[in-house]
Every structure is written in structure tokens, then in C-alpha cells.
Amino acid sequence: MANSKLNQTLGEFIIENQASFKYTSGELSRLINSIRLAAKVVNHEVNKAGLVDIIGNAGDTNIQGEDQQKLDVYANDKFIQTMTKRNIVCGIASEEEDDFIAINSQDENNQNKYVVLIDPLDGSSNIDVNVSVGTIFSIFRRVTPVGTPVTIDDFLQKGNQQVAAGYVVYGTSTMLVYTTGHGVNGFTLNPAIGTFYLSHPDMEFPEDGRIYSVNEGNYIHFPKGIKDYIKYCQMEEGDRPYTSRYIGSLVSDFHRNMIKGGIYMYPKSSLNAKGKLRLLYECNPMAFLAEQANGKASDGFTRIMDIEPTELHERVPFICGSKNMVEKAEEFMRNAE
Ligand code: AHG
Ligand code: MN
Ligand code: MN
């Protein structure tokens, strides 16, 4: 593939594109740089997940002496530490923390404008079986004045206010994929030298796809619209039946569907009235990426990024992927009302 952009590193890309961002102070660039660093540290740990016991048995402990620490807690600590130490955000909310964390936000000299919401390790149950996991992040400008303490209002913003969002997929190779509202770009880590290179410029969902991703084991509990859409996917007609692929790791399922064309669904069910996925650090960032990549994200009726959040860890039904597929699923939802 001849593409002159392909030898560009993530660091170079961030600098080159800083000017196209409407607030050009460089603060957002520094923030994405710190996420890049934390991603490399977490990647290193995730990669040796299966070795922990072996290393432990050899009498070798890790830096903290905490071999047995759950990786999602480790990832949480690393992302929070990196962003806190570099003093570039005024607040962080995480799946692993009950409440948001304020970072020197009461200090009137603290001019940091951004808050980050993060799922430090997504799909973490897959770690035990050597299957891809990810990290998801969402970035907003605070709505309260700089130099005053951050409040819950800084975190409970609609997704359409996001200034950046992205994910890291710790897969057969590790990639960082993000958007600042100017399309979606993917960078692959060269593990030999610890550098991310632009490998997937201007990523886009194909408008139509042939993959549907849903935990069909829950079929019996799904709403009628989703059941009907699943049957539609399985029907022999035109380019159907579609193929079914479900890793159980949102980041990986989304990543594959964006490249190949497909739809991901985590609907509400008779067991989970609002589904499972969290609006603020799973659905909103993925929805921003999807729309920037010519895809779509909805709760079945409403655009994900237009939903008004009411609490930090709230859940929402999530349908996301190739535009025509999501619209078809929405049509089934409407018809089943
Ligand atoms: P997390 O590991 O952050 O809790 O998220 C897991 C999520 C998502 O990544 C995945 O698609 C979904 O849970 C899988 O849920 P089911 O096992 O219910 O299908
Ligand atoms: Mn998750
Ligand atoms: Mn998680």
C-alpha cells in the first residue's frame, strides 16, 4: 500500500493537526499524548497477562510487587496517574471509581479545561482467555469556570459536546484510534520501539455491512424490535443471511465492524431495563467515533449523543455501526412499538 502518510508517528500527527483544532492552546494535544503514554504502559502489562504466575513463581515481582492485581484496576491506576502527574486535566471519571476525581480544580492557578471519562479496561473478562480487550476515553471541556472546583455538571454533558474520543485495542497488534471531530484515524504500535504509526488514516464504516454482533444467548429477554431485526439478519434474501460475530469486548467488536461493515447491539432486556453498557464512557465515545466514521449510534430511537445524562454510571441500550444497518434496526424498533 503506497501511502506517504504511513510513516507518520502519532506524536508527529498530533503536532501537525493541532492547528486544525479550534482551541489551539496545545492542551488537548498534551492530553492525548498522556493517553498515548498510559496506553503503552497498560499494553505492556496486558501483553504479559498469562506470565504473571510464572514470573511470580520465579521470585520476581513487578515494580509495585502487586502481581495479582486485577488488570482493570491496574489500567485504571495507570491512566489516572499519568493524567494526574502531568497535570493536564481538571477531572476524571472512570468505570472503576464510584465518584469523579477532581484534580487541583479548586486551585485558581489551575487553568486546565478538560475532563476525561474512561473505561480503563473494556472486555476485561476476556483477559483470562487471551482475547482482545480495550480502553475507551471521552474528553469534554469543563462547563464550570477554570480555577473553581469541578462539579458533576462538568461530567454529565451530552455526547454531542465531546471534543475528542477514542479507544485503544490491545489485540494481535495494539492500536490507538481517535477523533477530535475531524474524522477518525488509527495508529498501530510498533512494539519493538514503542511508537505508534498512522496505519489507518480516515477510517470509515462501509454504509452497508454483513456482520451482526449481539449476545444472542439473551435473545429470549430482548424487546420485540430487536428479536425481529435478528430474524431479519438471519433471513435468506438478497445479501442475507448476515454473519454473526461477537467477541464480547465492545472495542474489538466495534473495531472489526468499522473495518468490515457491521452492527453492534447491546439492547435492553427483561433482565437489564437499560441494557448493560454505560452512556458516558462506553456509548458516547463510541458514538462520536462512529459518526465521525460515517456510521451511526442510537438507543433504538434516539441518537446516543443527544441523550441528556443524569448520572455518572448510567446505562443505555446501544445500537451502533454501519449507517444503513442501524437505520434498519431502528425501523424494526419503531414498528414493534
Ligand atoms: P467491561 O469489561 O468494561 O465491564 O465491559 C464489558 C462490556 C463490553 O465490552 C462487552 O461488549 C459486553 O460487556 C459483553 O457483555 P455480555 O457478556 O453480557 O455479552
Ligand atoms: Mn466496558
Ligand atoms: Mn471496564
TrEMBL record:
Q: Which reaction(s) does the protein catalyse, per the Swiss-Prot or TrEMBL entry?
A: beta-D-fructose 1,6-bisphosphate + H2O = beta-D-fructose 6-phosphate + phosphate
Q: Which GO terms describe its cellular component?
A: cytosol
- Where does it localize? Cytoplasm
Binding note for cofactor? Binds 2 magnesium ions per subunit.
Would you say which domain of life the source belongs to?
Bacteria
Q: Which cofactor does it need?
A: Mg(2+)
Please provide the record's keywords in A-Z order: Carbohydrate metabolism, Cytoplasm, Hydrolase, Magnesium, Metal-binding
The segment(s) forming the Fructose-1-6-bisphosphatase class I N-terminal domain are 9-201
One of the record's GO molecular function terms: magnesium ion binding
Show where the Fructose-1-6-bisphosphatase class 1 C-terminal domain sits.
Answer: 206-333
Which residues are recorded as binding Mg(2+) 2? D119, D122, E282
Q: Name one Pfam family in it.
A: FBPase
Q: In which pathway does it act?
A: Carbohydrate biosynthesis; Calvin cycle
Binding of substrate, residues: D122, G123, S124, S125, N215, Y246, K276
Q: What is its EC number?
A: 3.1.3.11
Q: Which Gene3D superfamilies does the UniProt entry name for this protein?
A: 3.40.190.80, Fructose-1,6-Bisphosphatase, subunit A, domain 1 (3.30.540.10)
List residues binding Mg(2+) 1.
Answer: E95, D119, L121
The GO annotation for biological process reads: fructose 1,6-bisphosphate metabolic process; fructose 6-phosphate metabolic process; fructose metabolic process; gluconeogenesis; sucrose biosynthetic process
Main EC class the enzyme belongs to: hydrolase
Does the keyword Lipid metabolism feature in the UniProt annotation? no
For this UniProt entry, which residues form the secretion signal? none
Under HAMAP family, the record lists:
FBPase_class1 (MF_01855)
Q: How does it assemble?
A: Homotetramer.
Regarding protein family, the annotation reads: Belongs to the FBPase class 1 family.
| Protein name (record) | Fructose-1,6-bisphosphatase class 1
Organism (species):
Winogradskyella ouciana
